[in-house]
């Protein structure tokens, strides 16, 4: 998986697999991505807990020597 659009789609799908009702925006390429997730699931959660949910969802895309996602440069989570 080398195509940036394909990787962005995979990141989005991974997040939606964990947080089904989310609005997800993924930008970037070259292994570095900016992610914004809006979901009611974040209500009552702190920033770190919310971000851990998202990072846990995309962890498989960040593992290994040939991982398509090298870094998340910015991760924003919020409620609608």
Protein topology:
Elements: H1 4-18, E1 23-29, E2 32-38, H2 47-58, E3 71-78
Parallel strand pairs: 2-3
Antiparallel strand pairs: 1-2
Helix pairs in contact: 1-2
Short overview:
By secondary structure, the protein is an alpha+beta fold.
Question: Can you walk through the features of this model?
Answer:
By secondary structure, the chain is of the alpha+beta class. It has a single domain, classed as GMP Synthetase, Chain A, domain 3 (2-Layer Sandwich), CATH 3.30.300. It has helices spanning 4-18, 47-58; strands at 23-29, 32-38, 71-78. The chain has a three-stranded mixed sheet with strand order 1-2-3.
Attribute tags:
80 residues; alpha+beta; GMP Synthetase, Chain A, domain 3; 3-stranded mixed sheet; elongated
Query: What is the CATH H-level superfamily?
Result: BolA-like
Helix % is 25-40%
Number of domains: 1
- CATH architecture verdict: 2-Layer Sandwich
Q: What is the CATH C level class, in words?
A: Alpha Beta
User: Termini separation (Å)?
Assistant: 32 Å
Query: Which of globular, elongated, flat, extended, rod-shaped describes the shape?
Result: elongated
- The amount of beta strand, in percent, is 25-35%
Rg, alpha carbons: 12 Å
């Amino acid at each position: 998986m080398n195509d940036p659009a394909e990787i962005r789609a995979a990141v989005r799908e991974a997040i939606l697999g964990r947080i089904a009702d989310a609005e997800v925006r993924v930008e970037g390429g070259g292994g570095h991505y900016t992610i914004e997730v809006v979901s009611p699931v974040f209500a009552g959660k702190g920033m770190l807990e919310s971000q851990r949910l998202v990072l846990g969802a995309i962890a498989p895309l960040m593992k290994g020597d040939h991982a398509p996602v090298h870094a998340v440069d910015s991760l924003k989570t919020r409620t609608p």
